[in-house]
Amino acid sequence: MAAGPLDGVTVLEFTQIIAGPFGCQNLADMGADVIKVEPPEGEPWRQFAQFMPGEAKYFQSLNRGKQSLVLALQEPAAQEIVHRLIPQIDVVVVNYRPDVPQRLRIDYDTLSAIRPDLIYVDNTAFGRKGPWAHRPGYDIVVQAVSGLMAGEGKTDAHGAPDLIRSTAIADYGTGLAIAWGVCAALFHRERTGEGQLISSTLLQTALAFQGSSVFELPAADAMVQMRMERLRQAKAAGASYRELLAAHNPLAALAAGNIYYRPFATKDGALAIGALSASLWAKVRTAIGTDFLGMADPGFNPMDAAWRAKAEAAVAAVEETLRSRTTAEWMEIFDREGVPASPVHFPEEMLEDPQVAANEMLVPLEHDLSGPQRQVGPILGFSKTPLAAQGSSPPLGRDTDAVLKRAGYGDADIARFREQKVVG
Hints:
Strand 10 (362-367) and strand 11 (371-376) form a beta hairpin. By secondary structure, the chain is α/β, with parallel strands linked by helices. 31% of the residues are buried. Helix content is 40%, strand content 14%. The strands form 3 sheets. Strands 3-2-1-4-5-6 form a 6-stranded parallel sheet, with helices on both faces. The two termini are 26 Å apart. Helix 13 (278-288) packs across helix 15.
C-alpha cells in the first residue's frame, strides 16, 4: 500500500452512514491506518440496498482502505478491548447520538484519560448544547432546518418541499470538515504534544455552505428585511409552501434577464453557461448572436412591467436559439469564444469522461468478495506524499483477529470473546 502524509497515524472509527465514514475514508486515503468498529450485523449502510449479503455500493464507496473490527460495544468486555487499544490510537472519530458514547464508555473524557494526547472527533447533527442537542438527525433533516431545502426552491407535484437529491450535501461536507479538523489537530499535537476534542455538526456545515445568506449585514440588508417581512406576513396568513417560496425568493426578479448563468435545453440534451463578469457576458452574447443585454443592461429593471415583458420575450428567443443546435455544436462555439460552459451529464457518464481519465480521478480496486471495481479516488493531489486509495472496503469483521492480536490478545482470548459474542 502507498504511504501518504498521515502514514503512521492510527484512527479508531465509531461511525456509520455518510459523514463519519467519508471523513475517515479521506484520512485513509492520506495514509492513516483506519480501524472501523462495527456491530455484529454491520453498520446500517452495509445493509441498505445490498447487492450481495453484507455488501452495498453505498458502503463500499465510503469505507475503502479501512480494517473492519466487529465488537458488541454494549458488552463490558468489548469496551475493555477498546480501552486496551487506545494507547496505540492517535485519533478517535465518533458520530453516535449524543447520549451513546458515554453509555458505551467511548466518550472523550474516558478515552483521553487513557491517552491524554488523543485527538477525538465528536460529530453530531446539531451540537451538544441547546434545545436540539438530544435529537438524532440525518442529511434531509438538516437540509430542512438549516434553510438549504427552502433555499433550493423546489417543490414536488403536490407542493411539498423537495430535497437536494443529487448528494447528501451536509453529510459529505461534514466528512471533509472532519478530515480537515483531524489534520489540523495532528499538526497542533506535533508542535505542542497536546491532544484535543474536535466538535463537528451537520448543522454548522449546512450553515457554512450558505454563508452569504445566513449573514446579517444591516448596511446591505434593506431588501432582505423587506423579503423577510413578506415571508412573515405570508406565514401569518397560512400561505402554502409554494406561496412562501415565492415571497422569499431573492432571485425571482433576476430570472427575467438571465441568459448568462443558467442551464439551457439544446437540440439533443442540455448544457449550462456560467458567466459572472462583464467581459464574459459580452462573450456569451457574441457566441449566441444576440444583442439582448439582460442583467448587463444599465437600465435593468425587472420591477418595471414593460422592461420585464421585453426581457422575457428576449430570453425566450435565446432559449429557442440554443434549442436549434446540438450540445456538441454549441460547445465548439463556446470554446472558440471563451465562454465557460459544459454539457449536462448524468453521474454515471463520468466513468468514461476523458477529462476524468486524463486526471486519474478514478481508481481501480479489487474487493475481497465482489471483485473488480472503479470508484472516485482521493480528492487531493500531493507531489511529495501522494494520496492513494489504500484498498477496497473490508468485508464485515475481516480484521477482527488481527486487531485484537495487535492489542495483545492471544488465540484463546479471541476464541473466548467469540464464544461470548463479544466480537465477530
